[in-house]
Amino acid sequence: MKVRPFTPRDADAVFEVHRRAFGGQTVESYIVQRIHDARKAVVSLVATVDDQIVGHVLFSPTSVDDHGASVELVGLGPVGVLPDRQGQGVGSALIEGGIQRCREAGVDAVSVLGDPGYYARFGFERASDYGLGNEFGVDDEFMVYPLHGGAVDDVDGVVTYHPAFPKAEE
């Protein structure tokens, strides 16, 4: 398996990866498509096996109503892996590779909305413990991973994702 940056020629295959990974739903596929079309992807990686795209992860900009603190926080997701490749480390490789690229790009922290048991193994912690809320109305499932010491210590507020993401009421 190889992990490499997304290129525009990957768009159709990535759309299909997310559609299949999410049981035929296309919400995640369209989120990825809209963020790429808007040129707002901070990090976008694909995993390939024998030159076939089997997984994709996206990191996109967020904003924080932070009462004056300055922080570069990005959101992880969607991450998708073809069903027949799940459980083989593809998602982990994409997430770890993406976090490393975010760190290299000077990002302060990464947020994610997902399974706490899964994302804790990458270093994510409950965001509300840092004073960070979210627009989706969840607590334990909304997590943050500071990429350096003190990255979000002086930040509190609501993290807002790119408009491509559906809001809680949608």
TrEMBL record:
Gene3D superfamilies the record matches: 3.40.630.30
Taxonomic superkingdom: Archaea
GO molecular function: acyltransferase activity
Domain N-acetyltransferase: 1-148
Principal EC category: transferase
Record InterPro entries: Acyl_CoA_acyltransferase, GNAT_dom, MshD_Acetyltransferase
EC number(s) per entry: 2.3.-.-
Alphabetic keyword roster: Acyltransferase, Transferase
Protein name per UniProt: GNAT family N-acetyltransferase
